[in-house]
Design a protein that fits this description.
Elements: H1 4-18, H2 26-31, H3 52-66, H4 70-83, H5 97-112, H6 115-124, H7 145-152, H8 156-167, H9 174-192, H10 202-220, H11 227-238, H12 255-267, H13 272-280, H14 286-301, H15 311-315, H16 320-349, H17 354-359, E1 370-373, H18 376-382, E2 387-391, E3 406-409, E4 421-424, H19 434-442, E5 449-456, E6 462-468
Antiparallel strand pairs: 1-2, 3-4, 5-6
Helix pairs in contact: 1-13, 1-14, 3-4, 3-16, 4-5, 8-9, 8-10, 9-10, 12-13, 12-14, 13-14
Length: 469
């Protein structure tokens, strides 16, 4: 998934921009609009403070890093509610009523430690049209869930079922599930382009997303029982959202309102700053509209351009170091997946038997290990190499030990595979780190390198690929 980091930054920044203004109506926002990131306001929180939207999204990110599991996510949500887990200041200061009630029920089920009962609770709590269960508490956190769905490589019908299960942890309405599903398909098309991988703009992405949902609705086996809801849903799927005037765009905590407002903001804006300020200045549920809009905007405009997320807004985020730690875990895994794609292309070019090689890969371990190749002849003949893990700490960890003799490193750049190289090691270079080794021995700039990815093989050996920035 391209721009995962930017999507998460966008979500958190949009949330933090909206926190001071939550519950202010549009008339109030028009008189004193949001023009920059500030502190205090509604919840009296310092500048850069994010709320429940980001806390729950980060719980999902952490669960993806650990191996996504509904029960584990539910446990994290309960800890967030009770203990202030994954919050900016150790306190849960903002939680919706539906979310609170659902997590109280889930807390009781978790206390019984009966997986079957938890599973039945998720399934049987389904309710089509109860408006009390149709808040935006699932929509506000759902964007990072797309990473988990993409890793499963499943059909849209199965994707819908997975989204429904996740939504049911807190929100059991059909409207919530459909809104989350449509948002994720929209985000997927923004990230991946069309079905052939060609880049498309946001308008084409929205058109493809709505067409996908429309074409699959018959397979989902759920229909709205209320004509009013059906008409609203039809307006979102088939209406000219971009052409709607601002006065017709609602911004309440109702899930359909938040979806419509966020998509309208994205389709009528030209950069990140414009779109999130527009979202917050709609008023009412400012943090959630800002978060959902900001996440989509991060995917579209990124963070490293004049149109992207302002650097100072990212730097103002509370607990940014912890946020980066969680994002890095998913980002490195996504980078590794891209590594497999590039390796496949390389081996096809070199007439290697990629299918046989791919079968030997079991999983990925620490994506920033420092390793050295032992036997390049084995690599050339059988598609894998023996290596020694020198240090499985972070790339720039000091005090790694470099073994005697010549060490060969297989390098894979982000855009292409580089030729195999020989690096001359010192007799035994204690206290060295990979920065010294790369810069001094080969003449490369340290900033040229991002990290190393390790692929363990079934026979206990490993593959090494290295990435540039």
């Amino acid at each position: 998934m391209k721009r995962f980091r930017e999507m998460m930054y966008g979500l958190l920044v949009g949330d933090a921009l909206g926190v001071p203004y939550e519950f202010k109506d549009r008339e109030q926002m028009d008189k004193r609009p949001c023009i920059d990131m500030i502190g205090h306001g509604t919840h009296d929180q310092p500048k850069g403070t994010w709320s429940d939207d980001s806390s729950m999204a980060l719980c999902i990110v952490e669960s993806i890093n650990e191996g996504y599991d509904d029960k584990k996510v539910a446990e994290k949500f309960v800890r967030w509610m009770n203990e202030g887990y994954m919050t900016p200041h150790g306190v849960c200061f903002d939680i919706g009523s539906t979310t609170r009630q659902s997590l109280w029920k889930m807390q009781n089920q978790l206390a019984l430690n009966d997986p079957k009962e938890i599973e039945e609770t998720i399934e049987r709590c389904y309710n089509h049209n109860d408006p009390r269960l149709s808040g935006n508490g699932a929509l506000m956190r759902i964007l990072p869930f797309l990473v988990h769905l993409n890793s499963k490589n499943i059909s849209y019908s199965d994707m819908f079922k997975e989204v429904r299960r996740h939504c049911h942890l807190t929100h059991q309405s059909l409207r919530s599930t459909y809104a989350c599903f449509l948002l994720l398909v929209f985000a997927e098309r923004i990230s991946k382009g069309d079905y052939h991988g060609n880049k498309i703009d946001k308008h084409e992405a929205w058109s493809m997303a709505t067409n996908t949902v429309i074409s699959h609705m018959d397979y989902f086996e759920y229909t709205f029982e209320d004509k009013q809801i059906e008409e609203y849903w039809d307006k979102i799927l088939n209406g000219d959202i971009k052409g709607m005037p601002r006065k017709d765009i609602p911004s309440s905590g109702y899930v359909m309102d938040t979806l419509l407002a966020s998509v309208w903001c994205v389709l009528t804006s030209n950069n990140y700053k414009e779109v999130v300020l527009k979202a917050v200045n709609l008023g009412d549920d400012t943090d959630t509209t800002g978060a959902v809009t900001g996440g989509l905007a991060g995917l579209i405009w990124g963070a490293n351009s004049s149109e992207g997320i302002p650097k100072e807004w990212i730097e103002n985020l509370v607990r940014l170091e912890d946020v980066n730690y969680l994002i890095d875990g998913v980002y490195n895994d996504l980078t590794a997946r891209q590594g497999l794609v590039e390796l496949e292309q390389y081996y096809k070019k070199e007439d290697q038997k990629w299918k046989d090689i791919k079968e030997s890969i079991k999983t990925l371990i620490d994506p920033q290990c420092i390793v050295f190749v032992e036997d390049m002849d084995t690599y050339k003949s059988e598609g894998f190499v023996e290596i020694e893990i020198i240090d499985n700490k972070l790339l720039r960890q000091k005090n790694c030990r470099i073994k005697k003799g010549n060490q060969k490193v297989l390098g894979l750049f982000t855009h292409h595979v580089i030729s195999l190289e020989t690096i001359e090691g010192d007799s035994e270079h204690e206290g060295a780190d990979i920065e010294y080794f790369v810069q001094e021995q080969r003449g490369y700039e340290v900033d040229d390198f991002y990290g190393y990815l390790i692929f363990p093989l079934k026979d206990g050996r490993f593959w090494l690929v290295s990435y540039s920035c």
